[in-house]
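Follow-up to my post from last week.
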Amino acid sequence: MSSALSRRNILKLAGGSALGFLLSPMPWKMLDDISIWTQNWSWIPKLRRGPVTHKYTSCTLCPNACRVNARMISETPVSLWGAPDPCVGHSYLCSVGLAGHHLAYHPSRVRNAHRFTATENGISSEQLSVEDAIAHIAKILHNIHVRPEEGEFALFDCRPHGMVSDIQQIFLSHVLGARYIVPDHHEGRFMRALMEMTEDPGQSYGLDFSRTRTLLSFGVSLFEGWGISPLVVEQFRSRREEFNIIQIDHHQSSSSIVADTHIAIKPGTEMALALGLAHVIVGERLYDPASAARAVDLKRNKPFSFMDLTRRFPPGRVASVTGIPEDVIVRTAREFASNRPATAIADDFAPAELIHSVWILNHLVGATGKNGSVVQKRPLPQPWKGAHRTPPTRLRNVPDHSLRLLMIDASAADTTVSWPDLRRKMRAENATIVLCSPYRPKRGESVDYLIPIHAPYETVRANPSGEYVATSAFQISTPLWSKSEEGCETWQILQRVVSASGAMTKEEFAQLEPEELLRLQCDAIFNSKRGTIHHPNNDETIPLGSVLSSGDFYATLMEGAAWSDDGVATSTNGRLFLMGKSTSSAQRFAESVLAFDNAGIDSNPSFPLLVVPVGEDVAARFGHVSPILSKIYQESDLKPRSRFAYLHHETARRFKLAAEQRVIIHSPHGATEAIVRCDSSVRPDTVQLSVSQLDAISPTRPRIINSYGGRVYTDQPIFVRIERARS
Amino acid sequence: MKSIEISPSQYVMVIDADRCTGCGACMVACAIENNVAPAHPDATDRTGVTWMKVVKVSSGNNGDGKPACYLPLPCQQCAAETPCVTVCPQNAVEVDQQTGIVFQMSQRCLGCRYCMAACPYHARYFNWWDPEWPEGMEQTLNPDVAPRMRGVVEKCNFCHGRYQAARASAAEHGQASSDPVTYEPACAQACPTRAIKFGTPANNEQGVGDLVHSSSAFRLLPRLGTEPRVYYLSKHKWIRQMAQMEKETSTGEEVHG
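User reply:
Got it. Predicted complex:
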């Protein structure tokens, strides 16, 4: 038998081997191994290991002060969740708050001080130590002290609220000629407007929705943003069927989509509707008799007649002004007045006359001073009651070109200030702006010095409850990282600058540390002997009186507990003022209403479309929120985008425009390009544009932005026309 | 196509479209829980990775009192004829018969994207870029979920890391299986208005059993016979019709998501 090896044998062997290899597990194993290997590249992050613990703290990103349960792995937070809250029942974190632990690692984070200089090629930045930066700024302040004619020194507090703002005001009162500036509009403005319409001196108010049956919202962002959302969400969650929401909005906002009734209104005519509703309530005698008896100017004619004012807004006329059918106006007024407890609310950023009109509605239906509506609350006990403070100056009241040195406290997550407005207040030459922030300046913010401060959750911060809650509360935002990062708070930088400049007249507070500040606040609360402490660990509430010492109270708060005040008797027989307590406020309101009544809102035939401005992706992308918010603002189409103009189908048809078409939007002040998107949630005869698009078509008009709620207000309506762009 | 009954012990998600406010908290909570990286600068709504995506649906001009709504869209966890399982050449998609959850095993995935083409709900996402977190932020990643690399497909798995953690915890306490109440996906936990509910129909405490049989319950594209384990609720007829694609599209409804 021959054993010669033929070429055919070799080919058979090769073919068999190849087939056998394919049928063996080896190629599939190789594929798996390659897949696994390629998922272990060095740049794929390695996960942290260690014991899992939970830590309770509170969120400082907005004034709502939501309770936070942080899941920790090896002393590092990996996720944040809402926790039981003594004021609202249970805190639910918004999309920004859920990612709050990312902010320490924000790409814009800075660890060193910077000096920015304008050059021919743009802005150059130079890194320097915090001490050097403070020395430079102190020198400028010293010059102001010696030569006051060079301009003023001021601190701009982006979020004036609570103890830190308090101490800044007290501190500045010892610095000659220093100003304490606050934004023109800020949180709590709606509630504070009530002070001008009630008799009770020194009282503050909160909203109690626990029994509210009708909520009439004038364009308030009910489920997102700062202010009222935790209160509304709690009721919506726990007793949806009994909680009737009527949302008045010019477009289908997220609030109006979820509301029981959405009343679409022509933008800028909300005050007319509020007064129209008041007209029906008064005319049909639907008002609360007890409240009517308390309202001293309901039927009084001097100096300004409320009845005369509302008489100007009969439903028929309001219908023509607002675009709302007359029967809807009458039906809404009847529903609001009969389905009580009822509360009407407006946005903190809304025009003053609208806020006033909304409070009139509350007075008429007996909401003011009633459980289930607007309740009185005692203010948080203050450690420095009676101390001299520099009074706040609203930004618009600061004379133009008067400031030589301005420090900005940007420890709040976002600001509500218009940067061009701020710049206008600075002297034309040699003006210096110092930004105290954990992050690099945003696009368009030209500052001279940047001094880093702590990011959220990096240090202890006092965290009083928001303005809207029904009882005062206090908690401490404790740090989530045990290793303290270098940095300090704005008020400490202010201390050091002023001390180094020699401008301070009194050395009080010069050595105060953040912990000492918190202890002083805790002492004040402890000495009041009122309220309860809620600990989220075991969801238990104990009276403050059972705590032995102020030190124990402080330690409990540092563990994540929250103090909340006792409820107070809410029924009040104090007088109510529909037109305003003082003659000046009544006159201001009457004049605003009459001015609106005479002028109305009329478009120019050359510019027929009314702009509805909205917050958009740019606000989130360049704001100080976690990059993970890209899921909402970049990787989905959920929120409006900055390059689009949103039009109703009918409007698009009327102007012979189609979806995805490039257009130019003209206003009397300028023009901008956009791409058309058709959206039936936009009101006909309006165009929805983003904040950044307004820069081109309304360059000088101040505006107020509440980014997270997506609300933008302009002082005056903006009208535009749209033309197809030439390719 | 024959309709199958979902086992009462398998998990279902019930999303109330009338309660969703479109806040996006579920999207962010999902990304944090499952270590989905922030968007690459070039990513768009088509190329991004959003295991949970909320879309706004507008009725056009015929909304019977509700002109628009928000619909959160996770993977629908199809119980029958699961399209992605059928087409995957790598067996990288499997259905857990005990829980009913459809898994994507990224280790096996070759990135052919057949499953994306097959999915009628567009609930699968391809990693066009390596996952990247800003410096230091990787320390905040969830240790229960491995990050995926560029070139693989991923999707919602009802936060399977949480399911495993619940089972491990049950095992520590000497129990053979975990109590369904202890397991909840991140989106359901984060939803401020409780629009998203999760559980097994057999468990009364979670209340999903009654909801899936309520008259306002519906599922997306039921005519395909995929028997999704994600149910929706709405009292509005146009929303239920829209989900079933029975409504004439000429009425002008729009979907933004």
